[in-house]
Design goal:
Oligomer: single chain
Mean pLDDT: 97
Strand content: 15-25%
Order of helices and strands: EHEHEHEHHEHHHEHHEHEH
Low-confidence stretches: none
Shape: globular
Bound molecules: phosphoenolpyruvate
Structural class: alpha/beta
């Protein structure tokens, strides 16, 4: 079986002031210093990126943006460019989170442009995909994943795809306390890996890390991580407190 380095990422969404974010980052570093066999990343709000990146400099915890805009600069009030993220200390960026797709009408086309511009700036994108509850009930899960993966990765250079991670986050499991069963998640992850083979080739698919997201907690991480195609987690609510997130990282 392919061995992929586990990757645990925390999405702090629109929570924490600069001081709160810096303090949580400092607490986290002390608790996960021994986790050198896996990648760890947190994505604070834009305003806290710089203090958090300073607090994490030289540690084993990376920093990510929660979004970006694909242009390098210009009259785009309220937007943040890839270069601004790297200059604030980011190594990663979350793209296409379901909250952005749902509340800010982000399309697969926008996700595709964002991934390309992130990759061009040397950022490692984490592309989020996943079906809604209604889509799952209507048995459309696979067709939704098909569209999101193929459109999101369209015309992506082979070089760029090697730094990309996919996060499978069923929308019905985000922030709801409902986790997909490990079998449901594994089925979706295996399907996504096949889609990556179709879009690129088998070696790209075998190397691609696919994270699960949706109410991941210390109590369910080990079982999820025991599945063949689950390579890590994107954690929302449970990443806000250093101790809880560290328990997930150190599963
Ligand atoms: C997320 O925001 O990506 C997420 C998975 O949230 P939660 O862990 O709170 O469900």
């Amino acid at each position: 079986m392919e061995s992929r380095r586990p990757f645990i990422a925390g999405n702090w969404k629109m929570f924490k002031t600069c001081d709160e974010a810096e303090q949580t980052a400092r607490e986290l570093v002390a608790l996960v210093a021994g986790a050198t066999d896996r990648d760890v990343m947190i994505a604070p709000p834009f305003t806290a990126l710089w203090p958090v990146a300073q607090a994490l400099a030289g540690t084993n915890v990376g920093v990510g943006g929660q979004n970006l805009y694909w242009e390098t600069e210009g009259a785009f009030t309220g937007e943040i460019s890839p270069g601004m993220l790297t200059s604030a200390g980011c190594t990663h960026v979350i793209i296409g989170h379901s909250e952005r797709r749902q509340y800010f009408r982000e399309t697969d086309d926008a996700v595709n442009k964002k991934i390309k511009s992130a990759a061009a700036a040397g950022l490692k994108p984490v592309m989020c995909i996943g079906e809604t509850e209604a889509e799952r009930e209507a048995k459309k899960t696979f067709s939704v994943l098909d569209k999101q993966v193929k459109n999101g990765l369209q015309d992506l250079a082979l070089n760029d795809v090697t730094n990309l991670t996919i996060a499978y986050e069923p929308v019905w499991a985000i922030g709801t306390g409902k986790t997909a069963t490990s079998d449901q998640a594994q089925e979706a992850h295996a399907y996504i890996r096949n889609l990556v083979t179709e879009c690129f080739d088998e070696s790209v698919a075998r190397a691609m890390r696919i994270l699960y997201g949706g109410s991941v907690k210390p109590a369910n991480i080990a079982e999820l991580m025991s599945m063949a195609d689950i390579d890590g987690a994107l954690v929302g609510g449970a990443s806000l407190e250093a101790k809880t997130f560290a328990e997930i990282v150190n599963f």
